[in-house]
DNA sequence: TTGATAGGCAAGCGAGCACTTGCCTATCCT
DNA sequence: AGGATAGGCAAGTGCTCGCTTGCCTATCAA
């Protein structure tokens, strides 16, 4: 499991959350596709390298998975890590005390 | 509704997440009670003021609610804001396109 | 092979954040 | 009143983080 710190740090940035929105709407986008969408739809004047770094953070958090095909690298959303957020506080386990995962 | 940015920024710090853990275990704690618990149970060598600032951030995010009684200020956990996290990505709305809330 | 496209690596900079330090206010008890 | 307890305000500091800049590698098309 990805450590909680990576997950929450990844979600802490609004640009990264917008990237997740874009991947939720259309899965399997390349870096350049995400770049153009962010600048067109969201008026984000941001460089390609910045977005590439954001994607690396999201991938480290397990929120984005990638697959290579030739010179293209496709990015897919993975919302599974989000479940540990709700499980940590929304469902207090009565059987045992909490284990701090951070 | 608390803006998404405040919520995610509040969750981005591991000390704040530990505070939420403590409040989930025992609701209605005072600042000093949280202080002693963090130092005893979690070996966090951290000042009272630091924790006070953390609580302010959590309160701004809507994750903690407070009530005054004399010279005591009690802190209660509110997990309601966490729902917008799962609702944002786990439940893609097929009827309309996404609205960026960040 | 040459150029164009898609992406990666690394150093540097500026803003934001966590934390400390010092002092202040409010409430309660004797 | 006076001390003790519970908490608040604000300035300063060091580190993290987002972003840029510059250059490099890999794949594909002509």
Describe this structure in words.
The structure is a homodimer of 102-residue chains. Chain A is built from five helices and two strands. With 102 residues, chain A is mostly helical. Chain A has a single domain, classed as Winged helix-like DNA-binding domain superfamily/Winged helix DNA-binding domain (Arc Repressor Mutant, subunit A). Chain A has a two-stranded antiparallel sheet. Chain A has helices spanning 4-11, 14-25, 31-41, 48-60, 83-89, and strands spanning 64-69, 72-77. Chains A and B meet through helix 1, helix 2 and helix 5 of A and helix 1, helix 2 and helix 5 of B. The first copy, chain A, binds a DNA duplex (30 and 30 nucleotides) through residues 9, 12-13, 15, 30-32, 46-50, 52-54, 70-73.
Give a brief rundown of this model.
Two copies of one chain form a homodimer. Chain A is mostly helical and 102 residues long. The first copy, chain A, contains five helices and two strands.
Topology, please?
The structure is a homodimer of 102-residue chains.
Chain A: H1 4-11, H2 14-25, H3 31-41, H4 48-60, E1 64-69, E2 72-77, H5 83-89
Antiparallel strand pairs in A: 1-2
Chain A binds a DNA duplex (30 and 30 nucleotides) through residues 9, 12-13, 15, 30-32, 46-50, 52-54, 70-73.
Keywords:
homodimer; mainly alpha; Arc Repressor Mutant, subunit A; 5 helices; 12% strand; disordered C terminus; DNA-binding
Q: How is the largest sheet of chain A built, in terms of strand order?
A: 1-2
What would the average pLDDT of chain A be, to the nearest integer? 88
Tally of DSSP helical segments of chain A? 5
Main sheet characteristics of chain A: 2 strands, antiparallel
Portion of residues within helices of chain A: 40-55%
CATH topology of chain A: Arc Repressor Mutant, subunit A
Taken as a percent bin, the fraction of beta residues of chain A is: 5-15%
CATH architecture of chain A: Orthogonal Bundle
Shape of chain A: globular
Most extensive interface, chain pair and sizes: A-B, 28 and 28 residues
Listing every helix as H and every strand as E from the N terminus to the C terminus, the arrangement of chain A reads: HHHHEEH
- Unreliable stretches of chain A (pLDDT < 50, length at least 5) are 96-101
At the fourth level of CATH, the homologous superfamily of chain A is: Winged helix-like DNA-binding domain superfamily/Winged helix DNA-binding domain
**CA-CA gap between termini of chain A:** 12 Å
């Amino acid at each position: 499991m990805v450590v909680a710190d990576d997950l929450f740090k990844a979600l802490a940035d609004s640009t990264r959350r917008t990237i997740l929105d874009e991947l939720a709407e259309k899965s399997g986008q390349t870096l350049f596709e995400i770049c153009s969408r962010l600048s067109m739809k969201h008026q984000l004047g941001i460089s390609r390298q910045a977005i590439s770094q954001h994607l690396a953070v999201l991938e480290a958090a397990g929120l984005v998975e990638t697959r290579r095909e030739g010179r293209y690298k496709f990015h897919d959303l993975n919302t599974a890590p989000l479940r540990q957020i709700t499980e940590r506080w929304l469902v207090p386990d009565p059987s045992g005390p909490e284990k701090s995962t951070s």
